[in-house]
Design a protein that fits this description.
Length: 359
């Protein structure tokens, strides 16, 4: 094996943050296998373009020949698997790509990893890791008084996205149990921060607020998410990769439960403060309640006792300071924003919001 890792989906939101922090803090080189779908953006990694330890390969995790040749040529000591279709609303509009990439793509990656791993020396086999990045959505929805999701909460995925991620988690578990592949799985709550594609709640609201556009809140706005700053997710993945027990799963969360309406209101206030007020008044007035997401999970919350107890990980960022940093980042990166809002982005916004009735 070489001192390198294979990252999948490294041009997406969390993947690009992970690659940047990895190259800043570790010596091992990174091969980034990314299909560059609408959500993949090499511009997020422009700062490491000339780094000899970084290489982007445009390709599909579902392409067994490509994955085989990458593993043969680069001989990584780990695979960190981010690549996925990740947006719940898109999984409701068109689930096919979610099944293909999240379920079948993960199967192809696991199968090629097993073939590669089984031919390593005994010492290298012991050191190799396959880290699968998953989500808390596999556990379904909590009631207001329910305890937070732990690693033993039964799976109850509710959206096609969540079901496809649950399927991928089960495949990872099976490859460890049946073949002994040294896997690790992380199930994380909602991330926010720099480089997030503006189809997701926080960046969508920041950019709409900046431009004085309506802020579409689904249903009554009381759905709760447990927010984690993306750099804290990346540090948790690093900790699990370095010290996680083979075959284990780790829940990752920020202990920052917030109702959507509270998040959007805070975004409005931060944009008013940093960009100056609109002539029409405070941006809170832009909040518009629209038709709910079908099957909308009411509440997510993560119990991160296991990762903090076993690996000493805890988040560094509070939600309010992390959100402030995030709003600042979007205001300071108009070029990045302009480049991701291409024709495909505009088509999605028209499809998801123009057809959604106002409540
Ligand atoms: P993203 O949509 O921003 O990025 C996904 C990346 O995967 C993109 O770069 C895309 O081009 C790439 N990709 C898609 N299909 C591919 C394929 N077939 N082959 C190769 N590359 C492909 O997603 P994200 O928000 O960065 O999420 C990354 C991972 O973390 C996902 O597995 C997601 O389920 C998980 N996750 C996300 C969150 C969150 O809040 N965003 C929380 C918990 C877990
Ligand atoms: O919990 C982890 C998951 O978090 C990840 O696995 C997913 O990849 C990620 O997309 C995210 O899923 P959510 O559905 O929670 O995130 P999203 O940003 O799409 O929505 C957050 C909440 O805001 C949710 O309750 C729906 C609501 N919402 C979203 C959008 C886009 C709105 O009210 N209006 C909107 O326009």
């Amino acid at each position: 094996m070489r001192d390198s890792i294979l990252v999948t989906g490294g041009a997406g939101f969390i993947g690009s943050n992970f690659v940047l922090s990895w190259l800043a803090g570790e010596s091992a080189s990174v091969v980034n296998l990314d299909l560059l779908t609408y959500a993949g953006n090499p511009a997020s990694l422009a700062s490491v373009d000339g780094d000899p330890r970084y290489r982007l390969v445009r390709g599909d995790i579902d392409d067994a020949n490509l994955v085989r040749s990458l593993l043969r040529d680069h001989r990584p000591r780990a695979i960190v698997h981010f690549a996925a279709e990740s947006h719940v609303d898109r999984s409701i509009a068109s689930p096919d790509a979610f099944i293909r990439t999240n379920v079948h793509g993960t199967f192809v990656l696991l199968d090629q990893a097993r073939a590669y791993w089984s031919e390593l020396t005994e010492a290298d086999r012991r050191n190799f890791r396959f880290l699968h990045v998953s989500t808390d959505e596999v556990y379904g929805s909590l009631g207001p008084a329910d305890p937070a999701f732990s690693e033993t909460t039964p799976y109850a995925p509710n959206s096609p996205y969540a079901a496809s991620k649950a399927g991928s988690d089960h495949l990872v578990r099976a490859y460890q149990h049946t073949f002994g592949l040294p896997t690790l799985t992380t199930n994380c709550s909602n991330n926010y921060g720099p480089y997030q594609f503006p189809e997701k709640l926080i960046p969508l609201m920041i950019l709409n607020a900046l431009e004085g556009k309506p802020l579409p809140v689904y249903g009554d706005g009381k759905n709760v998410r447990d927010w984690l700053f993306v750099e804290d997710h990346c540090s948790a993945i690093g900790a699990v990769l370095a010290g996680g027990r083979v075959g284990a799963t780790y829940n990752i969360g920020g202990a920052s439960e917030r109702a959507n309406l509270d998040v959007v209101t805070l975004v409005c206030d931060l944009v008013d403060e940093m960009a100056g007020p609109l002539a029409s008044g405070p941006r809170r007035k832009l909040i518009t309640f629209v038709a709910d997401r079908p099957g909308h999970d009411r509440r997510y919350a993560i119990d991160a006792t296991k990762i903090s107890g076993e690996l000493g990980w805890k988040p560094a960022q509070q939600f309010e300071s992390g959100l402030r940093k995030t709003v600042r980042w979007y205001l300071d990166h108009p070029d990045w924003v302009r480049d991701v809002r291409t024709g495909a982005y505009l088509e999605w916004i028209a499809k998801n919001y123009t057809e959604r009735t106002t409540l």
